[in-house]
Fold:
Amino acid sequence: MKRWMRKSLFINDRFIYRKMKIKWIMTVVLAVCTGYGQACTNLIVGKKASADGSVIVSYSADDFGSFGYLRHWAAGKHAKGATRPVYNWENNNYAGEIEEAPETYNVIGNMNEYQLTITETTFGGRAELVDSTGLLDYGSLIYITLQRAKTAKEAIGVMMELINKYGYNSEGESFTIADKNEAWVMDLIGKGTGRKGAVWVAVRVPDDCICAHANQSRIRRFPLRDKENCLYSKDVISFAREKGYFKGKKDSDFSFADAYAPADFSALRFCEARVWSFFNRYVDGMEKYLPYASGENLQAEPMPLFVKPNRLLSVQDVKDMMRDHYEGTPLALDNDPGMGPFEAPYRPTPLTWKVDGKTYFNERPISTQQSAFVMVAQMRSQLPDYVGGVLWFGCDDANMMAFTPVYCCTDLVPECYSDKVADDLHFSFKSAFWVCNWVSSIVYPRYSQLFGELKTVRDRLETDYNTLQEKTEKEAMALAGTEGEGMSAARKYLTAYTNRTAAGMLYEWMELGKRLMVKYIDGTVRPERDGQYVRTPGGLGVPVERPGYPERYRREIVKATGDRFEVK
Structure:
């Protein structure tokens, strides 16, 4: 899912795009929003930058009102001449038919059975380059490709073959395309209505580096003669010249981002700042890029596409990074009145707001309440594919839920992650999306008082899953033996484990929600004794605690009101 595109009218993170003139740059044209206003973040870790030698990719599908669930496509063999329907990823509208591949692979979420993972963030770019006649949108392109490719490089070829044949009907997109050995970032945008194909560039992330993108094109200049590490459409520069987006004399001066998605304040502060926060946590000296990432100076030095971290990152590090609210940086959300009395690192929508005719904004961190689901893909070349690929998955904001392991060989979606038990308009206690959002909605209003209890359960579960991982995988490989019945048994074992951990998480979250309701009812705190709540019927027994506002907020009230509320 996508997008946090910028500009013009901000309506609950959904935009209507217009041509706008900004004093820093020439006219910038952004795409017309035809679907949900989503705002995704991708973090990428090369295999030599990770603690266990895995390639790691994260993805948050951020969209108010979107229902988060885990999709599945079974592997299959198809007769010559067979076709398959294409449905628009955002609105599920039927788009048409395309030729089916002779063989398709098992896909669970954004990973297939060969550990290939594809994710995205939308940067929008120039509105006139959307091809409304194209058959494939960004979502259908991702999931069809996952069914047809085994490696990242092969996936890039499949994507371009599909686009050139059937057309591309989405705004500008940044894709992460990764397998068990390498990760690539590809920036792509169409050529306009009725003109099939796309202009694009894909750059390989060095194995010892980390990278990220968050709704802004990040590939600027790129090597024109390094086919091992850079691929691009033959007309990516000439098309920009044709359109007047690039007027430089030398091709080597061409910047994809500057030509097809020139940045403004919103692109930096709401998008590049998320990338900066990731880099800043693991790279020394990133403060020099803050003037650029904060949008304070559009002429400041932009951040590099990838950087070498000062230590190796674990899968858990990436999960925790998806919970980032700019803590410990000048952009932190814990030092202004917007955090409310209970110091919540969240802000209500819309993202921008007005006072006396002036427009102001809220920070947009990686972790946000609008997430439908978040995943962290772990791909390992040192293990067989069926056990090497793990999609750590969860519904709702990463900060407010526990990731559970989903193995890439899984062919049965856990009930709680399915769209069979609920949807965006129908609540169910069988649905992880609804249960996790229910608990989050209890915690948000009294964040500083309640979040500690959620975090305790979250961290305990993730520690358990991390601890069990090695044992579980050894047992699966012991079952597998050689190809044949053993392999089938191993896949069944991992599918069962995937379903069991998801169901266990749902049960724990249900119990957490019940506990929070009972303990913190009506703004009070029910006392406990020996791990049991103390009954307080009719004012008898031990009274409930009434903590009221935190001390810090009480002082703010007095500061704002003087002696108005002073007891005389």
